[in-house]
Amino acid sequence: MEFTVTKVLQTTDVLQLEKCVNDHDGIELKVAADYVGENDFAVYDGSKLIGYLQSFAYLPTEWEVNVFVDPDYRQQGIFKSLVETAAGVAREAGAEAFTFVIDDASQSGKAVLGKLGAEYRMTEYNMVLKKAQLFLKADPDFELREATASDRPFIVETLGQSFGNTADEAEAIYQAIETEDRVTYVGVANGQPVGVVRAYLASETQASIHAFAVRPEAQGNGYGKKMLKLMVQAMFRTGRTQLELDVETDNARALDLYKDAGFVVGRGYQFHVLEL
Asked: How far apart are CA 69 and CA 82, in angstroms?
């Protein structure tokens, strides 16, 4: 049976498919509901959504992709059709690769990506805050303040240095995630900015901490620990007590830091890269 790749009709269709796939496969992979209808692709059987691909151009040359296919319609070429259609659009926009994100427990995801020839890159843990440390010893020489427009050059440069991106890549990533539902803070030691940390405000009670980095020359002074704990305090003050973050599984130093701040390891997510 041939299926046509088209536009998604309703966000509720996507959320229903997400639940169907997660329940069937025993995984937890989420779509970004706020971005449904933007740079995504769908396959329907009549009025039923049976395949969905959501993409994010975090870099002009590399897009991050999530794909969901109804368990009753697998092995019929739907995944491949979605990827091929999206790849055509991505190439025209200058993209050179897709980065697929799958739950570490997704056997079907690993199998289909293997058939496509995608290459495994890394695995990240999702960590969830279990026991916040809200009472910290005051340090008059260190503060975490909300970023201003004048901090932008420092933020972009710090993120680029810390995550191995070129200046242009760091700028592109920052632009891609510079939305009204995110906040940025700068760590300041002895009057000098030393690090940056951001949060995506998912709801009135939830937030996801990301883009957390300390300048290379400032590392080893305990600034990261202070920044993270102060960030948790800042989120709690807004009523957001359900906090999470992601970290590479082989980053032992960061894992220890996050555990010390009260976060515990949850699910793992694999990243696979497909050259276009």
From this structure: 10
Tokens of 192: 């000098």
Distance CA 184, CA 210 (A): 10
Q: In whole angstroms, what is the distance from residue 207 CA to residue 182 CA?
A: 9
Q: Which two tokens stand for residue 260?
A: 């010390």
Tokens of 144: 């975490």
**Residues shown for the chain:** 276
Q: List the one residue out of 50, 60, 53 whose CA is nearest residue 2.
A: 50
Helix (H, G, I), strand (E, B) or coil at 274: strand
pLDDT 10s digits, 82-139: 999 999 999 999 999 999 999 999 999 999 999 999 999 999 999 999 988 766 677 8
Q: What residues contact 101, with CB distance under 8 A and at least 6 apart?
A: 29, 64, 65, 66, 269, 270, 271
- Give the Cα separation of 43 and 135 in Å (integer): 51
Residue 135 neighbours by CB distance under 10 Å: 7
pTM comes to 0.87
Query: Which structure tokens are listed for 44?
Result: 């329907």
Strand 40-45 to 5-6 pairing: antiparallel
Rounded to 5°, the CA angle 187-192-198 comes to 20
| 197 touches 227 (CB < 8 A) | yes
